[in-house]
Amino acid sequence: MKVDNFRLQLGDKEYIPIIIGGMGVNISTTELALAAENLGGIGHISDAEVCYVCDQLFSTSYTTRKRKKYSYNANNPDKSDVYFDLEDIFEAQKTYVEHTVSQKSGNGAIFMNCMEKLTMRDASETLRARLSAAMDAGIDGLTLAAGLNLRTLDLIKDHPRFHHVKIGIIISSLRALNIFLKRAVRLQRIPDYIIVEGPLAGGHLGFSPDDWQTYDLKTIVSEVIAFLKKEELNIPVIPAGGIFTGSDAVEFLKTGSSAVQVATRFTITKESGLPDEVKQHYINAEHEEIVVNTVSPTGYPMRMLRKSPVLNYSIRPNCEGFGYLLDNKGKCGYIDAYYKALESRKEGEPMRITDQTCLCIGMAKYDCWTCGDTTWRLKETTNRMHDGSWQLPSAEDIFNDYRFSEDHTIKKPAPVEKVNS
User: Fold this and answer.
1) What pLDDT is recorded for position 421?
2) In the chain, how many domains are there?
3) 334 within domain boundaries
4) For the whole model, what pTM was predicted?
């Protein structure tokens, strides 16, 4: 049986049951999302650091203007004066989403991954601006991620598209879903889909640093499906994290899931925003090089490659230009770690920060090599070139392999030149 034997029904529309996850910062590019949409699936873009992403794509100057405005504060550990301009956030998000959805050419959809943990110094108002702008710009769906999103629906309940745009939630436990649903029921806005992200996913994990290894995706998905059936809630359940082959996907689809969300295999595609050199690092990675650490200022455990340059950062925080993880008091774990290390550094010795890192700069520079647990298997999916490098497949290659493969086979892309045996 193949993934193509199934379909995802969302409202009155039907999709190939393959969703590409929203990887930031701009790893899930417009081009990657459109590839999925063109093939009848669903592609995500991410609103991580959207002002900076717009600056890179459209030569805007949101980051520069913000940095200049607060330049007087650059050496001050107190960032409580540093705010984002809400009009800039709205404008950047609207520009980015319009740029993407205006290029749709297939029967699929474009969703946006919106992260609650991007607190941006004013958690509620900056999230409201990002969500509202995306809806104004015509986004097909909003995936609420990176947090419990207890008040997120309240932020957009008065938007004219509140009951028309598809809204989903990423959860890692039945408990988290229960908490979200209580508020959703009060607002009479049940989610259109539920993405269940397991412990093998890339980037931030929705588990505690001490017990993430005790969970498995199939168990959580089964619990969620059983709960929804008991409550007579007909909401599509979409597992994510560690689904490496089409046959892996079919195992979930046969037992009640409505689609799968996949990302790891798409990190190395031509359309992915990762620099080609970094894609080669991903393919060459061995399993022991993939680690779960606690260096993220968000407080969540995070999976990445051990060789990620961000793990060696000792750079001064640039919250005046970035500041995407500043809480409502202008605090961030990396700021505290940086100034603590600066104060204790002995003359002539390099400064070392081991317990935190600057994700804002690291993600913007593609120095934070977040990855799924199955990244070490990427070399099974493509061809070795004569110079020792690896061929980069297209998003269509990967999408169709998920869609049509059987018996856990993986179809590699057609070689573009002679490859090593």
Assistant:
1) 43
2) 1
3) no
4) 0.95
